[in-house]
Structures are given as structure tokens and as C-alpha cells.
Amino acid sequence: FSINMDQLQLDEELGRGNYGTVKKVLHKPTNVAMAMKAGRELEDAKLNAIIMELDVLHRAVAPEIVEFYGAFFIESCVYYCMEYMDAGSLDKLQGAGVPEDVLARIAACMVRGLKFLKDDLNIIHRDVKPTNVLVNKKGEIKLCDFGVSGELDKSLAKTNIGCQSYMAPERIKGESQNNLGTYTVSSDVWSLGLSMIEIGMGKYPYPPETYSNVFAQLTAIVHGDPPELPEDSYSEEARDWVAQCLRKDPERRATYKELLDHPFLVRDRTSNVDMVKWVEKALEHKAAVALAAAKAQTPQSV
Ligand code: ADP
């Protein structure tokens, strides 16, 4: 079905990205809650290119991919509607700690989602990171924000200007750009490994405060040893799986198939990890942290 603004009731803001906001909306005709993302103004020629490119999203239907409902334009701005994920992004849920069986399930979902995009739609994600992994209270883990449209990316001003780079060493060095900017799947595998470390440790593994500037931080990614999952909380299998994603040489990184067939994820196939329970606990923790932060900001009464 096609969607337009008149059919939408705007609800609360869900978050802010680099360029603008994501709002919760209700699609009145179907009574479906959605998340709506807005882009900036564009020239008409580009709008048509985007419409054509977005068409592929209607085919991106898989259990590990956030569903796309449609996009529309108002005064040359693109509005993009997708499945509402009621537990938000993974970066904000990892604070409560992520036990190994939960980490394995998250990893399995991410790999299956990435493999589906590549094998069935010939799409490389290009922006794998915990903020782009969404969760719902049913315990489902889904990917969003993949590089389906060059024009849309530009419209949403997707730039890696944040202080957390998930870019693979070869991307930072610019090697894989010789070839008309070819981006290979293996660069996504690096970002996947780095995301697993961040989720497992509860923080980004190259913290900006450790480096005097962004250049030093990027140098550490390119020349330093890759980070590892902590020995005290994760098994040898989990640590090896992540290490296979984080090989500095892209040719030596594991493929999606190898990652799915690795003992870490083979074990997950028969694991009865309670994801609903984990999401519930993670949300409670997130709410407690938010409350503490709000209290700290309120001036003490005199
Ligand atoms: P970024 O630009 O950092 O990738 P986004 O603009 O994609 O961030 O999203 C900003 C925030 O909005 C996310 O961190 C997430 O918490 C929330 N969000 C995005 N998409 C959805 C969705 N489909 N359902 C629920 N929350 C979402």
C-alpha cells in the first residue's frame, strides 16, 4: 500500500540521528504503529532516483530485516516509514550486560540478515553498528539502515562523522575505493565483529577519550591489534568467532556461511535462550539509568 502524511498521526520522538529525527507514527487506515524518518530537501531529479531505488526495499522481507512500509515526499523532503521496533536500538540496551547465549542469538540474527541482503538482493549493508540493530519486546533482532540507495544516503546525509568508527581498516586506508568505490562484504564483517565487541563489553572498543584526536583513534584501528571479547565473561568459541570477523586482512575474514557454521552459532541453533526476558531486563535497566540521569540534572531543593 502507499502511504502519505494525511494518514499518519504523529506520536513521540524515538531518537535523533546525525541529520534529523525518527518519530513514532500511527498509520490510521491500518492502525499500524510505524517509525518515520525524515530526510532533507532534494532536487526533483534525485527524488525520482530515490523512488526507483527504494523499490528494492519492498522485496527486503526477512525475519532479520526491519520491514519497509513506504516513502513519500513533501516539498522535496523524503519521509521514510518502517516497522516500529518497540525496544529501540541495541546500543541503548547493552548496558545491562549481554550474556553469551544472548550475544550468540544477536550474532546469528545479524549474520542471517546480512547474508539475506547479499544473497537475495545483492545489497551490502555498509553501516553495520549497534545503532542500526533494532529490537522489539518479542525478542526479535532486526537490521535497518542499509545502503540500498546512494541518493537516499546522500539525502539523509549519512556520513561517518561520529566519533565511533565501525569502518574496516582497509576502508579507513581507502584501499577498497580504488575500484570505483567498491565496497566488499568483508568490510561489513569487520563492522559486525566490532559491534559484537561493543555489545559484549557494553562500550565502544576504541573509546574517543583514550585518544588525543580522531587521527590517533583511526591509526589504532588500522595499525593496532584488533580488540577481543573479554576472557572472563566469554567462551573460547565466542572469542574465536569474533576474532574471525576482526582479522585485519579482509581476505582472511570469515564469510557469512563460515560464521553461521562456526560452533558458536551452531550451538545457538538449539539454544532456548529467553530473548523476551533479556529485552525486558535490558529495558528496565535503561529506564533506571535514564531516571538516575534525570535526577542528577534536577537541582536539589533548598
Ligand atoms: P543513526 O543516524 O544514528 O543511525 P537513526 O536516525 O537511524 O540513527 O535513528 C535514531 C534513533 O531512533 C535510533 O537510535 C533508535 O533508537 C530510533 N529508531 C530508529 N528507527 C527506529 C524504528 N524503526 N523503531 C524504533 N526506534 C527507531
From TrEMBL:
Residues 8-265 form the Protein kinase domain. Keywords: ATP-binding, Kinase, Nucleotide-binding, Phosphoprotein, Serine/threonine-protein kinase, Transferase. GO terms for cellular component: cytoplasm; protein-containing complex. ATP binds at K37. It comes from the Eukaryota. Its EC number is 2.7.12.2. One of its GO terms (molecular function) is MAP kinase kinase activity. GO terms for biological process: cellular hyperosmotic response; p38MAPK cascade. Belongs to the protein kinase superfamily. STE Ser/Thr protein kinase family. MAP kinase kinase subfamily. This is mitogen-activated protein kinase kinase. It comes from Gymnopilus dilepis. The chain holds residues 162 to 463 of 463 of the full protein.
